[in-house]
Design goal:
binds zinc ion; globular; 9-stranded mixed beta sheet; alpha/beta; 17 strands; 8-stranded parallel beta sheet; 441 residues; TIM Barrel; Urease, subunit C, domain 1; 2 domains; 14 helices
Length: 441
Amino acid sequence: MTRTLIRDVDILTLDPSSTLITRGKIAIDGTRIVAAGESPKDFAPEVVVEAAGHLAVPGWFNAHCHAAMTYERGWAEDLPFPRWLNERIWVAESALEPEDVYWGAALAACEMIRGGVVAFNDHYFHMDQVARVVEESGLKACLAWCVFGIGDDKEVGANLHGTLDFIDRWQGKANGRIRTALGPHSPYVCPPELLQEVAAIARRTNLAVHLHLSESEEQVRNSMDKRGASPVEHLERLGILDGHCTAAHCLVASDSDLEILSHRDVTIAHTPITYMKLAMGACDLSRFESRGIRVAIGTDGPGSNGDMDMMAAIRQTVMLQKHERRDPAALAGDAALRMATRAGALAMGFDDSGEIAAGRAADIILLDMDKPHLLPRHDVVANVVHAAKSADVSHVWVDGRLLYENGKILTLDEERIRAKADEGARRMVSRGMQRVRTYQG
Ligand SMILES: [Zn+2]
């Protein structure tokens, strides 16, 4: 357990009033922040970090991703969502081996650490492999093994019951840095019986649920035709929304859908770059905000976004709101930063994180602000949202442990991971591939 003092640092606490402390100190004892601003008189640090010219912010929480989809970066370009899934993504994933998930997620971990991500909410397959990466990298994560429930031959590596064994193996492991969730794919693929069973397990075990929800007008129309209920109403009836839930996307939601969500412990994971790249449209986040529905930000997988750059996702969240609503006042920068920190932390069940304040987990990043594109500093929040890049991240601490310092990842062998992942991704797409399920909207 290390005692660290970060000295002479500007601190964007991202507390509810977005307090900015200039040339202050952050004292970390073990996994916790013990002071932000001044350090306690009797604090005797073992490590001192001189951070003049740097800005400390809470690390990013990537609220929805498929880390090992780094293997599908550049693999499914310029296609509409149904063809993207049916012709490319679900084809490649039919050839997925556990080892692919390990190296794919390790590559993602390198990218995320470099970009200041401290935790990710992952939804994929062969999740023991992702858990290994989390354990080794020092990151935090909430891991959900994606299941479809349309026959064991259509699953990847485990059915729902297999994923419960995964949850038993990993919940709370890596000193509490690993959390797990149930991961039904979506109401448009999963039959109601599977969703009901998931809801019953979630109620019994208090586990969170992470799934995809209401991504298009077509999905809503099909749901209304089939069940006389919107996807949100359908989940509500099945009991999926009774507990703690992350719903990725929710791009199409009626006022009555939002009324349901406002009474539930649901986080909407918003991934703007996927929406733009796959031309899926946008949603007005003020409709969620005004009803008190929590919104967090994610990168989604590199098969639909291109990268796992949270700072790009934060900036594009703000841009897309302003552009879509033709309103330059739409979504202030500090609100977007809180979505990418505290809201994501709550979504993943790391309730003690997402702000720089005494008592919080020491999940902190430093940005090197001594760069041409970050001067002058009339408005630090504006500089972070609209000008800073992931490459400006100089330090990353997770639970008080330094994972990254000035270009070097301290926990992973990045060179080996890059080589193994590059080789593995090329091997995967050269295997015999056959789609095992079809998206029908
Ligand atoms: Zn997704």
